[in-house]
Amino acid sequence: MGKRRYLLYIGIFLLVVFNYVDRVALSVAAPAIAAEYNLSPVQVGYLFSAYLWTYVVCLIPCGFLTDRYGAKVVNGVGVLVWSGATILTGLASGFVSLLGSRMLMGAAEASTYPAGGRVLRDWAPRSEFGLAATMLNSGGYAGPAFGTLLLGWVVSVHGWRWGFYTAGLLGLVWLVGWLVWYRGPETATFVGEDERAFILQARDSGAKSGGSAEGFGVLLRSRSMIAVAVTQGCAVYTQIVFLTWLPSYLANVKHMSIVKSGLFTAFPYFAATVLAWVLAHLSDRALAAEGGSSTGRRRRIVVVSMLSAAVILAAPFVDSTPMILGLITISLTGLATGISLNIALAADLLRSPASAGKAMAIQITGGNMFGLIAPIATGYIIAATGSYDLAFVAGGVLLVTGAVITLTLTHAPIGGDLPAPAVVPALRRA
Fold first, then answer.
1. Are the C-beta atoms of 219 and 365 separated by less than 8 Å?
2. Which CATH number is 5-427 given?
3. How far is CA 379 from CA 44, 173, 196, 295, in A?
4. pLDDT for 80-105, tens place per residue?
């Protein structure tokens, strides 16, 4: 049996990579933009956060649209608009136009995770769902790694505006491949019949009772749904602090050039991407070997990942740049693994695969409600204290909180009032 479906996992991974290249373009360009327009740390914090304002508002509508019209259409429109908005950012003439273009980008990027989650629910056998979800999510770590390296060089040589032009064009190139190539597993021509039958059988055997799509109200009444969304937020807060402020931290506190700060930002992100893939693969193999219901075991892996990410609490007590980068690498690895497997945990708990887009939208909305606060809060912390220490501490405390929530509040199925579904060995991921 072939494994051509892995090409799809890679394609979704690249979607998120280019999504995050667009996000990190401002982080790389921020020192130059702040100098050109005389922006304060608080103003820069608002610019960092701007895309999340519209992103959060549009996530749930994008989940609804994905479940209704399919991933191909919704994702295609989203990529077209957010790539165009990124190019427009390079044409901005001041704070207001920068803010507006980033808000447009955020609204369009809200399609990415609901559509990506629907693709994985359609394509990924349950025995591979942890790895597939990690590949989806780890694009959010490989993207900053690739983006800071590439755009750091582009900005240093050609200026900050060309950083946005370059980032936007990457998304448009990906879009062409998506529109030409993507199909559902029932009609895709790039997979053989044996692999198609395996995907459909594994997907259908993993379907739970109550297979019709459930409304947002039903999902939001689930304690487990709220818990995985809040846990997502506790992790995303720290993720966004790193994504937005790490290049500026290295430039302003460690006095690195744009190119050097891009290089030093890239290393922990690359390391976290690789380590998260390895850990997710080992997790899937271990859980498949054990058989039976594995939801509880995946829950414990999420808890351990969140607690390992909380090592960033030690950052205020470390002065060495290599040691700081080591702590950030460990924290990012824990975040990449924990966020990915928290998504997989939600999929385990979800009764109806037809509600995957809505459930993913709720979970990612919860995450980014915290995330939109992170850049602004960090800007105020820096302005008030002249230091990044309290920003790191806030992230660590939230990570510990998320671990406790996962451990105690994610035991009931998500959606409906039906009895718990029977155990299906191929479905249980932990």
1. no
2. 1.20.1250.20
3. 7, 34, 50, 39
4. 999 999 999 999 999 999 999 999 99
